[in-house]
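Question: I have long wanted to understand how a fold can be written as C-alpha cells. Here is the record:
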Amino acid sequence: MTTPSDIAFSPAVKAQQRARGSRDMFARMEEKRPWSDVITPDLAQFIGTQTSVFLGSASADGQPYIQHRGGPAGFLKVLGDRQLGFADLAGNRQYITLGNLSENPQVILFLVDYTHQRRIKMWGQARVVEDDPDLVARLSVEGGSGRAERAILFDVATWDVNCPKHIPQMFHADDVARVLAARDEKIARLEAQLAALTGKDD
C-alpha cells in the first residue's frame, strides 16, 4: 500500500472509480487528506459512546459474515492509539467469527450513531485471546449482561468517516424515556403552580 485508503481502494476498486468518474476526486483526497491509521481523540470519544457495532469477517476462501456486538456504552474499548478490544460473550455457539479469524484475520468494524447520523468504518486485523482472565476482566463493562468467554483484539489499519446521507435518525429508548419523564415532571410542576394561583385543585 502507498496510502492507508489502499486497504479499501484495491486496483479493482480504483478501476471502477476511473470508469465511473470518481477516481480523480479520491486521488486528491489521498494526497491532501489521507485516511488516518491511528485512533484520534475524537474517534476514541465516538467509540466510547457506542452501544452497538458490526464486525465483518471472511473465511479463507472469501465467504463473508457480519456479526453484531452490543453492550453498555464503552463495551468497545480503546486500548491504544491503534488497538481496540471487547469481551466476547457467550452466544448461539455457531462460532462463525471465531472460525473465520482462525484462518483470516482481516476484518472491518462498522459503527453507526443513529442519533447524530454518523458512521465510521474501521479496517484492520483481529485476533482471539483465550485463557486470559485479566484481559477479559479489563474489557468487561459494568452493567453488561452475558458471560464473557474470551477477548477479541482489533488492530487498526485505517478508518474513514462516511457521510450522513441516508442514515435514518433514531433515538435510544432510554434517552426518549428520560426526555418524556422530564417533560411530565415539568407539566406536573406547572399544573401545581397553576392550581395554587387559581385556588383550583383537579
About this structure: The chain has a mean pLDDT of 92.
